[in-house]
Specification:
The structure is a homodimer. By secondary structure, chain A is α/β, with parallel strands linked by helices. Chain A has helices at residues 15-29, 39-42, 64-73, 79-90, 107-116, 161-164, 166-174, 194-209; strands spanning 2-7, 33-38, 93-99, 138-144, 179-180, 184-186.
């Protein structure tokens, strides 16, 4: 399996970085090939803008998705997007590894999706959800957060964690057609003991070992909708 | 009322830009003071990183929220963050105006929250939700999207739109203590007629005129939780 870990933490000594390194070791020990895309180390530019397309199909008015298609067709994608897209296309499993910022992705990682999840390659037209062009690949969120486990769930202060993550789990990864694995959440990381951290890394190893049987996030099948996306039943 | 519109569209001629301009005119006609922070025009840097803090409280290990507090206390915030934070503190109504990217904020706007929603000023400790430090201010999302209205709701292909927006509505704006207004969604914008666009701008004018009676998004009160955030009932 080709595993792509897109890693986005500003502190190289962070626990989140240790998670990335631990996953890399564990997957490699199993014979998988792992590539790490460390967005902070690369100083990845997360801003989708006109600067991405020096040669435009429409120089007078920017429609980002149309220029993505045009640039891809003309082999004129910016180097950084082309590089990340090649990694994405090659991978069987995409892991986004990050600290939860405002219940979602840090901007540098959100922008990786904005710029690399290319119209016409990753999704497009009616190619989304179970017809998304990433079909056959798996995706997994592994992240750290300050909150504790009891703060999430029915009646908990922040309600259900996967609902908070819905625009990523369903709206991005599911939309693109990935099989979306149940996330790995490392709770309360800034406040826990060294022993608890070591234990959490062990749990992550176990999660890597048992990925085949890990729960999947469900999202709709377009078989249940007509071409205008009205529900059939 | 001081209105701050944080605007994030890469095309200055976009319909989204027309929404920003329309709201500015309408609020000003009512005697309100409007400031527009145009993130693309400013080339706003959305990446929360060590570069934000040249003088660190802990030079050996970056904890972003702690360095935010340290820099703020020592009057050492980067100019761009200090400028946006001053606009945020002065405003009575914060409007985020943007095109929906992957069912959430474009990275340049997500990073505005990551960097400007300062620990100790916007939230902190048990100061969140109805004890968030932005209490007394209102917040409103106004955005464009490609999808159509019937694609959202019970049994619709993308389910409920506000649930998709939860990390912003509840997890960011609600968490910070804002009164969060029901969003204004401009559906199907890339595909509609000029007449339909004009009508949509009229609807936005009406929404501005009737903001006082617009529905609010509900989120928890910390009165219902103990100090460890276990539910009291």
């Amino acid at each position: 399996m080709n595993v792509l870990i897109v890693h986005a933490h500003p502190e190289p000594q962070s626990f989140c970085t240790a998670m990335m390194q631990g996953m890399q070791r564990r997957f490699e020990a199993q014979g998988h090939v792992v590539t790490v895309s460390d967005l902070y180390a690369k100083q990845f530019n997360p801003v989708a803008s006109a600067a991405d397309f020096p040669e435009r199909s429409n120089p007078d008015y920017l429609v980002y998705a149309l220029e993505q298609r045009h640039a891809q067709k003309n082999n004129a994608l910016p180097d950084d997007i082309a590089e990340e897209l090649a990694l994405l296309q090659k991978c069987d499993l995409l892991i986004l590894n990050f600290p939860l910022y405002w219940f979602s992705l840090p901007a540098i990682l959100k922008g990786w999706i904005d710029r690399v999840f290319l119209s016409g390659v990753v999704y497009g037209g009616r190619n989304f959800y179970d017809r998304g062009l990433m079909k056959g690949k798996q995706a997994w969120l592994t992240f750290t957060l300050g909150g504790r486990e009891h703060m999430f769930g029915d009646n908990a202060v922040h309600a259900d964690l996967n609902t908070m993550l819905r625009p990523v789990l369903r709206g991005s990864l599911g939309y693109a057609g990935f099989d979306v694995l149940e996330p790995f959440a490392a709770y309360h990381v800034p406040y826990i003991s060294q022993e608890a951290r070591v234990e959490m890394l062990d749990q992550l190893d176990t999660a890597v070992d048992t990925l085949n049987t890990r729960a999947r996030i469900t999202y709709p099948s377009l078989d249940d909708f007509d071409p205008q996306m009205n529900p059939l039943k």
